[in-house]
Amino acid sequence: MSAQPLDTTNVRDLVSAATAAPSLHNAQPWRFCLQRASGTLELRADLGRAMPHTDPDNRALHLGCGAALFNLRVAAAHSALHTDTVLLPDPADRDLLAVVHLTGADRPDEDLAALFPAISRRHTSRHPFQDRPVPHAVQDALSDAARLEGARLVFPSKWHVEALVEHVRDVEGRDSAEPERLADVQRWTRIGAEAADGIPERAFGPTRQGGRAPVRDFAGRRAVPGRAAAVFETTPQLALLGTGQDRPDDWLRAGQALERVLLLATREGLATSLTSHSLEHQDLRELARDPRSALGFVHMVLRLGYGPAGTATPRRPVDEVFEIR
User: Fold this and answer.
1) pLDDT one-digit tens code per residue, 168-189
2) Distance in angstroms (rounded) separating the CA atoms of residues 102 and 112
3) Tens digit of each residue's pLDDT (9 = 90 or more) over 100-139
4) How many angstroms separate the most distant Cα atoms in the chain?
5) DSSP strands (E only) in 113-154
6) CA dist., res. 141 & res. 144, Å (int)
7) Taking a C-beta distance cutoff of 8 angstroms, is the pair 153, 259 a contact?
8) What values do phi and psi take at 108, rounded to 5?
9) DSSP string of 60-76, one letter each residue
10) Checking DSSP bridges between strand 237-243 and strand 30-35, what pairing results, if any?
11) Among 1, 4, 19, which Cα is nearest to 318's?
């Protein structure tokens, strides 16, 4: 594969792939800026899409931007480009999350490039999964993928899965007493309307009639005409993604690790969904950590299995998130 010139069209394609990343409530809290003179691409936080009640320290915002950064790296490798990334390069400019230097590559990263087809296929699935275990070899590969990005992916024991499920039930009960958090959810859910961001009702999945899978119901108590009901799995297959420290650069690394795991899982034929619902409460986030593991801080709970791939959610036009200087 020969290196392609770094032109505006190529960079737009990279940004388009980057924006396919998951983010809390699909808020898409990122902006990209191509600096022509230096040949660098900046990733910036879009704080107008932050959630002060749900995500007061912007940890989830950093996770989403980290996932977008990983997609950018994958798309660059697919285009025979090399990426040299610096996280949080300017302490005086906290919105600047990363600077990516793009150059031609004699030997593109084949492992990254191989994940490119999964970018368009990865969707959060809020549907029931089969009672079919994820093979240990696949679990090991996913854990290795997280480690490559400086994070850890741990598959908790049965007792810990039970505790995690109870945490989600706990936080569902708390939501009704915290209208500010409900307002954050309602701001980003779309019932009876379409938009370029947020969670449309077609992506809600069926309402849970039974089972214990930790799937967030974005409809809440609002009626969704024609929405089906389904029985979910009783013992969901969960994984915890985390890092040893809990700083903004750790969050960005965790976001990259998260997307690497999700893309590899998609390539392996797994359906995936994410839940940070209980992690939005500090006391439950502390309890999410498995004391028998070296996982210091949990950033995401992943649900993995075999089932429907989920529904694509809308994306903002590239022109809204990309500028050239």
Assistant:
1) 888 877 877 788 888 888 899 9
2) 15
3) 999 887 788 999 999 999 999 999 999 999 989 999 999 9
4) 58
5) 152-154
6) 5
7) no
8) -65, 155
9) HHHHHHHHHHHHHHHHH
10) unpaired
11) 19
